[in-house]
Amino acid sequence: MEEPKTGGQTYTCNEYREEMILLGLQRQLAATDLSLERKIGLLKEIARIEIQMGLD
């Protein structure tokens, strides 16, 4: 199966997966009952994924 192209580049399954992981982390961060430690952990993981994706 050929993948759709956007802007001359192929959008891969790995890129989609990274976006979904990032979205899930951002949703977890939006929860109001998180401990400070959990918030810091989520922020670090979000930053790591954004760097990996080139969104920093």
How many helices? The count is 2
Low-pLDDT windows of residues? none
The secondary structure category is mainly alpha
- Radius of gyration, CA atoms, in whole angstroms: 14 Å
| General shape | elongated
User: What share of the residues does DSSP label as strand, in percent?
Assistant: 5-15%
**Quantity of strands, as a count:** 2
Distance between the termini: 31 Å
Average pLDDT works out at 87
Helix-residue proportion: 55-70%
Order of neighbouring strands in the sheet with most strands: 1-2
Could you write a compact summary of the structure shown?
This protein is mostly helical.
Structural features:
56 residues; mainly alpha
Give a verbal description of the structure.
This protein has 56 residues and is mostly helical. The protein is 62% helix and 7% strand. It contains two helices and two strands. A two-stranded antiparallel sheet has the order 1-2. A hairpin with a 2-residue loop joins β1 (5-6) and β2 (9-10). α1 (13-29) packs antiparallel against α2. The longest helix is centred in the last third of the chain and has 18 residues, at 36-53. The radius of gyration is 14 Å and the shape is elongated. The chain starts with a strand and ends with a helix. The mean pLDDT is 87.
